[in-house]
Design a protein that fits this description.
Helix content is about 25%, strand content about 35%. The protein has about 210 residues and is of the alpha+beta class. The strands form three sheets. It has a five-stranded antiparallel β-sheet with strand order 7-11-10-9-8. It has a four-stranded antiparallel β-sheet with strand order 1-2-6-5, sandwiched between helices.
């Protein structure tokens, strides 16, 4: 089974990334899914989404959990029954899970040129330091999106907007980390964020 990468972010936080190479049948065969999870996966129209969903359950097994240990709240945020914090992502052929004693968020995105066309929808402050002509412009936009998506997953609060409420401090790709802020309804909070690139994808994660 292709566990692609395991990262110990700190003593309380681990990230695991899966490269989805197995067939749907091979992924589902060893899993013990809850009834609602089975209904959910069977209802997905795309096999890519099905395989992403199932690969996340394999990542749970890598952490020592099963599908039975996972549940979602009314905002769609995942939780573990033992009280540990979890965040989940999958994109095309990769999936990722982060588990921590602290609040966390994670996102994996494919690096694509078309992100530049929607940049104004999620970037405001960051345009002050971004160079639209730079060779790494698409990479940096993908990092910013991933960090803001991770923040959104961490809070899971309807009404938060990437462009207006989340800030990513200047960074270089080689540093693989930066600081980000949330500024929402009087709440101002600072977070550490980290990112890595692999095979045309970017994974970003945020830790409280």
């Amino acid at each position: 089974m292709p566990l692609y990468k395991s990262i110990t972010a700190n003593s309380q936080t681990v990230v695991k990334i899966w490269k989805i190479e197995e067939s749907y049948d091979d992924l589902i065969a060893p899993l013990d899914l809850k009834t609602e999870s089975l209904s959910r996966v069977l209802g997905m129209k795309s096999e890519l989404h099905q395989r992403g969903f199932l690969s996340v359950r394999h990542l749970l097994r890598e952490f020592g959990y099963t599908d039975q240990d996972l549940f979602y709240d009314e905002n769609g945020k995942p939780h573990l029954k033992d009280g540990k914090h979890i965040s989940i992502t999958h994109s095309f052929t990769f999936s990722g899970v982060i588990i921590s004693d602290n609040e966390v968020g994670i996102d994996i995105e494919m690096q694509r040129e078309k992100i530049a066309k929607i940049a104004k929808k999620f970037v405001e402050y960051e345009f002050e330091y971004l160079d639209t002509e730079a060779e790494d412009y698409i990479n940096k936009l993908t990092v910013i999106w991933g960090i803001k998506e991770s923040l959104y997953k961490l809070f899971a609060t309807p009404g938060m907007l990437f462009r207006e409420h989340f800030l990513v401090i200047p960074f270089s790709i080689k540093d693989e980390e930066t600081v980000c802020w949330i500024d929402y309804n009087g709440l101002k909070k600072r977070y550490n964020s980290y990112f890595l690139e692999f095979e045309g994808f970017t994974c970003a994660y945020v830790i409280e």
